[in-house]
Design a protein that fits this description.
single chain, mainly alpha, hpI Integrase, Chain A, two-stranded parallel ribbon, 47% helix, 6% strand, globular
Amino acid sequence: MTRNYTPIPLFDSLEHLDDASHDHQFSLIQLRLPDELSVKDVLADYKQTCQFLYAYRGSVETVKSYRREIERLLQWAWFVQLKTLKHLRRNDLETFLEFCQDPPKNWIGVKHVQRFTSKNGLRVANPEWRPFIAAISKKSHREGNEANAKSYTLSQNALQAIFAILSSYFNYLEKEDYTFGNPISQIRQKSKFLRKHHGKKTIRRLSELQWAYIIETAEHMANENPVHERTLFIMNALFGMYLRISELAASARWQPEMGHFFKDMDGNWWFKTVGKGNKERDISVSNAMLEALKRYRTYLGLSTLPSPGETTPLITKILGKGSVEGARHIRKIVQHCFDQTIERLIKDGFSEDADMLMVATVHWLRHTGISEDVKIRPREHVRDDAGHSSSAITDQYIDIELRARHASAKKKLIKF
């Protein structure tokens, strides 16, 4: 490893992945390259990767995920192994995976920061950026604790993401005749890194009590301050239509509008969205969800129901015009509602439920909505509304067998 090397970001955001930005950003990398590496070969790696990332420009979140994993790999390959992509083999990738599980402390940050900032018309690398982030739970943060490099761990989900993303990356490089073979797919003992789970996957979701408190909290907030009518609608939409956060926020790929609510020939209301894999689907809108929409539109000063083709943004900015863009803003809105709910739960004596809610994410609302509906609706209907690719995925939300299994175990004896 290059002595005392502290990583700098390699790839900027999508809007700065043009040729002019390439030249400037690569000049920053070139200054740090070890003498053992060919600048020409590293530049070829860099340009191939920029092209790969740009191919996913239709989905900002996908670009971010792919950039994160590839950036780590290239940092390690160039500055630790002193190799370019063409020279990486299966044993190198196994070493890289072990490296990701225990990176040097100066490769680990304690907060998410922008990779680059603008200065005098140029994009400048942020010195606080690091490839790995040590995170702590929301509960621990609320208790006043701070993250540090020693608390860094790599979860099983993160490892699975590395395998999936880098496999896609090397497949692309191979098809472009840039590399030969996929070293990730050649790893035979994946179980050395990835644990196999026997039985159903655990679905992270809210309890009935937690959801009841959350939606009641959102209603209280809206009644006390009309600006939170938006919060209330967001909570209803995420739960009632199982929306992913990316399906609610505006992006280059999808701009949710009021006109995406529409009525069919039978008088039934639907909501059109575009989800994972750029797949369009229509979601059936319940009477309760329709009432939530009417309330939100009344607050916005619109007619109670949208007209065909209405282009009013679905989630509007409070200040200024247009749609709320990106997942981060909506995530903050939901988290604020969660925080208010946690305080109410603690005040009412439900400390255990409050503790569990401290680790909840926005996606739990989707999981909870699906889990509740699959109890009372045909699974095929829930599958299609949720945008699941198969009924097997929807089946993971059915708890009947798990409940029966646990009930039969409750009376097992240890002492006879």
